[in-house]
């Protein structure tokens, strides 16, 4: 079978403007690129591209303007790489040369540095005592007592406690507020129960939840009085986009109470929802149950702050729906879309990348990419092999609950607060198991989280860490065969694809995490299986505060 040509050309285009071409067949030597190379990475997609052009350094060129779309084409119009032009270093003297440099359109995910959104925030530590101004506004008729974050003694779960301590001589209240930092709230979900000292039949009692324009309640959407035996749950939806605060309040009209007796209302779940329009998943219970899907968050973030990236192709979405309900995902402070994506994908083994279009994609690792095959000798396969300092058969993850207590999850048999068998790798092929050893990894504290969130992070660590044992490198020169035996130029290989070395001692498909193609040598360098980060970077990447309510 004839092998296809490997020649490449480069097109530079501008929105609504002209298109320019560089290629080996161009009659003008200034448009003939040399030392063309480009790379892809996973996650990320198209990474970097550069080449040399024999041009004067003291002239301006219309095809070298920043942010022009750079597309590398193969024979037949197949796209090998696409990104945007960012740099044009120039060399003067005896060797006149300009070196255009481009980056993949994944860079657009970091253009907006002020991405902010409260997707779902159930962190009780974000709630504060009422403001000085609120106290001044009510001081003539009311006494105020501050709330605290406690453990509900009857249920053993964290809660925000509003409470009055008797005896009080006149009207009294205890309340807390949540500040969304000027971001509009869409709703407040809440769950509450009263302490045994609160008589719900006493009409002087009231407690309520609301969303407000400010912490002083100048304009609110209120739940109305929640006075009942309880426990109770509810949702207060914002009626305008001006509600940037949430408030819970407990009040008693008149003097009452026994000296030193505490009269509490336990707010066992409080979840602020931003005004984003994303469907909240799950069922509201006394301790939570609500969350958001990573795929919905990523769709919203890309569409909102990276609008040049499409999220569908030919009318079909390129964002694979996720299933894990994330209990906490909030970005009240400025960040980037790439940081949002990293946090949202921390629970699952998925890939995300930006390719031609430009188009943003996210999918499970088994649901995308091409399959290639090669032989060990010509490809120069170098296998890292198992590394003892990276081999474990269990993981223990520590986190903090919303009261600040340190908690742990781990496999059965370990002294932890919550056990889960998925935090142990029982695969007999794991060298640690084969040696009859017990080697758990002590994962760094991930911050405020839930047992479910900590378990999900531990599961991902075991899977990612396990993959490192088949790490290696290879080089494909000229051409490569796909799974059907069809020949392709080696530049067609991309990060996220899989390659099988048919005569290797272990001929299993290996995941490609990075490619680097050099047109001058027709060689594509492959990084196999291991993530582009080393282990310490991998840990840092997933040690994120997956805040939520839990014990």
Short description:
This protein is mainly beta. It contains seven helices and 41 strands.
Unreliable residue runs: 531-551
Helical percentage? 10-25%
- Calculate the terminal CA-CA distance, rounded to whole Å: 63 Å
Cα-based radius of gyration, to the nearest Å: 29 Å
Number of helices, counting only DSSP H or I runs of 4 residues or more: 7
- Major sheet characteristics: 17 strands, mixed
Mean pLDDT: 89
Structural class: mainly beta
Give the total of domains: 4
Outline: elongated
- Beta-strand content: 35-45%
Task: Tally the beta strands.
Answer: 41
Explain what the structure shows.
The chain folds into 4 domains: 8-103; 118-289, Jelly Rolls (Sandwich); 291-367, no CATH class; 369-551, no CATH class. Helix content is 11%, strand content 40%. The protein is built from 7 helices and 41 strands. The protein has a 17-stranded mixed beta sheet that branches. Helix 2 packs antiparallel against helix 3. The protein is elongated and about 95 Å long.
Q: What are the SSEs and their pairings?
A:
Elements: E1 8-13, E2 19-23, E3 34-41, E4 44-52, E5 69-74, E6 79-87, E7 90-91, E8 97-98, E9 101-104, E10 115-120, E11 127-129, H1 132-138, E12 143-144, E13 148-151, E14 158-165, E15 172-179, E16 185-194, E17 205-212, E18 220-222, E19 232-237, E20 245-252, E21 262-274, E22 281-285, E23 288-293, H2 294-305, E24 312-313, E25 316-317, E26 325-326, E27 329-335, H3 337-344, E28 350-355, E29 359-364, E30 371-374, H4 376-379, E31 382-383, E32 394-400, E33 406-410, E34 418-419, H5 431-434, E35 440-443, H6 451-467, E36 472-477, E37 479-482, E38 487-489, E39 498-501, E40 510-518, E41 523-528, H7 535-542
Parallel strand pairs: 4-28, 12-15, 30-39, 32-35, 33-34
Antiparallel strand pairs: 1-2, 1-5, 3-4, 3-40, 4-9, 5-6, 6-9, 7-8, 10-27, 11-15, 13-14, 14-21, 15-20, 16-19, 16-21, 17-18, 17-20, 22-23, 23-26, 24-25, 28-29, 30-37, 31-36, 32-33, 36-41, 37-38, 39-40, 40-41
Helix pairs in contact: 2-3
